[in-house]
Structures are given as structure tokens and as C-alpha cells.
Model the fold of this input.
Amino acid sequence: MKHLTRKQVIDLAAANGNLAGYDLSGINLENLDLVAIDFRGSDFKGSQLSKSNFSMSCFDEADLSGCDLSSSNFTGASFRKTVAVGADMSFSTFSGADFSGCMLKQANFGNAKMTCANFDEADLGNANLQMTDAAMARFRKAILEEIDAYGSSMIGAVLSGAVLRNAKLHGADLNGADLTSADLTGAFLLEVSLIGADLTNAIMRETRLLRSSTTRAKIADARG
Done:
């Protein structure tokens, strides 16, 4: 796997947009406009990708572990089966991005915008989702164990079959969310809005539901 410099990345991006399979570890790609670039399978470990525009780019099966992706634009980008353990995604835009099947443990999505993003079957264990906008995002069968989603917006999000054991959801907005068959064992739901949410067959063993609004929510079949 060939290691590239920042200048080589810029030149290749301008020439043909194909940067798949390169060693980009430790590289500084801050403040760049890299729209619709193919980074498939590339190694970004420990790299700086902040304050840049990567909208519509492809990072499928890349390694973004420990990367700084903060304050950047990833609208419509694809990250399928990417590894991004401990990556800093804070204050970035991921609207419509595809994170299906990703390994995102301990990633920091604080204040990120992820409306309509796809996290189906992704592992976000211990991730920081504080103050995120994840309205209409999909988390089908995703692992969300011990996440901190303080003040996050998940209006209309699909979390069917998701694992939310010991999740911290203080002040989260889950109005209209689909939580059917979700595992909320030990989750802490303080001042959470669940108006119109569907918790049919959800597992709520030792779930703490305090000062939360459940108007029109379907919780009759939830399992304690």
C-alpha cells in the first residue's frame, strides 16, 4: 500500500478522483475540497480530515481509527463497513451518509448533523451522541450500548431491533421513533419525549423512565 503526501492526494483528486487503497495514515487533509472522491479501502489511521468538504465521497471499508473528522461536510458520503474506532466526528454534517455495518465504538459524534443517515447494523458502543441531530436516521439492529445521547434529536428515527443497553438518553427527543423489539435493558430515559413512539415488544428490563412524555406511544407490549 503506497503512502501519499498531501500534495499527491490533491493532484490525484484533481486528475481522476481515484484514491482507493492508499496509505493515508497520519496525513493532514484539513481545509480541502474533496467532493466525490473514491477513498475505498484506504488507511487513514490518525489522520486529520477536519474543516474539509468530503460530500458524496466513498470511504467504504477504509480504516479511520483515531481520525479527526470534525467540522467537515460528509453529506451523502458512504462509509459502509468502515472502521472508525475512537474517531472524532463532532460538529460535522453526515446527512444522508451510509454507515451501515461500521465499527464506530467510542466515536465522538457530539453536535453532528446526521439526518436521514444509515447506521443499520453498525456498532456504536460507548459512542458520544450528545446534542446530535439524527432525525429520520436508521439504526436497525445497531449496537448502541452505553451511548451518551444527551439532548439528541432522534425524531422519527428507526431503531427497531437496536441494542440500547445502559444507554443514557437524558433529554433526547424520540417523538415518532420506531423502537420495536429494541433492547433498552438498564437504559436511563430522563425527561425523554416519546410522543407517538412505537415500543412494541421492546425489552425494558430495569429501564428507568423518569419524567418522560409517552403520549400516544405504543408501550403496552413492551417487556419488563
Q: What stands out?
A: The radius of gyration is 18 Å. Strands lie at 188-190, 208-210.
